TrEMBL record:
Organism: Stentor coeruleus
SUPFAM superfamilies: Voltage-gated potassium channels
Pfam family name, one: Ion_trans_2
TM stretches of this protein: 37-56, 93-114, 126-145, 157-179
Residue ranges occupied by any Potassium channel domain in the UniProt entry: 101-177
GO cellular component, one term: membrane
Keywords: Membrane, Transmembrane, Transmembrane helix
Gene3D superfamilies to which the protein is assigned, alphabetical: 1.10.287.70
Keyword Transmembrane helix annotated: yes
Protein name: Potassium channel domain-containing protein
GO molecular function, one term: small conductance calcium-activated potassium channel activity
Amino acid sequence: MIWYMLIEVIFCIIHCPPSFNQVFTFEQYGGSLDYSLDMFAFLIMLGRIYLIWRIFEHYSSWNDEDSEEICNSCLCEGGVKFAIKAELKERPYTVVISVLVLSIMVFGVALRTAERPFMQISGKDWDYVWNGMWCIIITMSTVGYGDFYPITHLGRVIDVVACFWGTFLVSLMVLSLTISSELTPQERKAYDSIKKKEDRKNLEIAASNTIKSALRLRLFLKKNPMIADKNKAGLINKFKNALIKYRVLKRNIKASEQDAPFEYILAKLNEKVSYGLEEIKNKCYVYKTLLARLDTSETNQLQLKVYVENLKDLNAKVLNKLEVIKKGRRL
């Protein structure tokens, strides 16, 4: 803990010293690259963005003393890890978008700072801060248009780190979208009911179309009994298509209805298992509490025995003292 504190103190002490600008010159791609001392200090100072993490750690409602007690009572580990999971569960898009915007700003400014000294040779306008942020955006999103890209070694290192970090954030956003789009059991029940209603409606429409096609074909054949097969082929094909559509739709609805009881059984089984596990967890907590109380009572009993023994010794000493006093008076 002390080493972490010392490292953090040293990290926060670093700053851009006024009136002190030592320049370091490097050779790269046939040109000179001038990096100043305050530029290195500035890049290190950008890392202080982690202090936002400290603010979240100390002021989050998911990480206070009450939340810690509740986590302990529920037999789960609290702390910062639980607080992050809770925030991602409660406000996934707010957290991901906030981190994404901060990352674009920090990496964009760092990339601009690293590329500006080599701007005349590269031919890219890195004076404009939005160009650095634009380069980070197309890097994080793995688009890579190629209009802006780092040339210096330090800029490439920053861009590679931004690429990996952006991939992580994008995957986290996709995961949040997937979780938020999942239906709850109540929503799943409503969805199945509405889907069944729509399927029944479509089946009725298909059945009515089949009946209409059959009646049209029947009336046409009744009015024109001697007509050639070529002329009645169109109505026959319409009737066949309507009948096939009806049968396919009916078969699909029947298959989905047969699958529904199995899903219902799985949902009920999952509910019973969850209830049983919750009951076992509560009983384990009660058992753990009773064991703790028994240990406390045993400790108290041992202390009480020690106190009783000490009291007996003290009583014996007092009685001996009284006997000595009585003998002295008799003499």
